[in-house]
Amino acid sequence: xxxxxxxxxxxxxxxxATLSAALAAINAIPGVTVDQISTFHDTVxxxxxxxxxxxxxxxxxxxxxxxxxxxxxxxxxxxxxxxxSGRVRHERWGDRxxxxxxxxxxxxxxxxxxxxxxxxxxxxxxxxxPWLEIDPDAVLPGHG
Length: 144
Description:
single chain, alpha+beta, about 30% strand
C-alpha cells in the first residue's frame, strides 16, 4: 500500500455535488481507499496569467488515503472519473467541471507523466491549505 494525496477542483455546474460524487468515485476505484477528506474551499479561478475574478470560482478539496495502484493506473482511473463528470480538455488552464490531480504518492519522485509530486502543488494554496487541514505534518517530496 502506498500513501496517496489527490487534489480535487471544480468551477462549473454544481461544484459541491461534483466534488462529492468524485470523492465517492475515487473511493470506489479498486485498490484505492480514501481515509481523510478536507472541507471544501471556495477559491478564485487560477488561469495561466494568474488569479482571475472574471472566471467562475473553484471549489477545491484534498483527499488522502492509500492505493495499491501504480501512478499510471491511478491517473487513468482519475481521468475516467473526470470524463464521467463531463470534463472536456479543450483549453489548458480552462474552466472545468472536475479536475483531479495526484499531488503525492508516498515519497515517490517521478519526472515522467504523471509527474509526482504534482509539479505546481507547492505553489498552490488551494492544494496546500486543504492538505494541511487533514494532515498538519504533511510533506511534499522535494519541497518539504
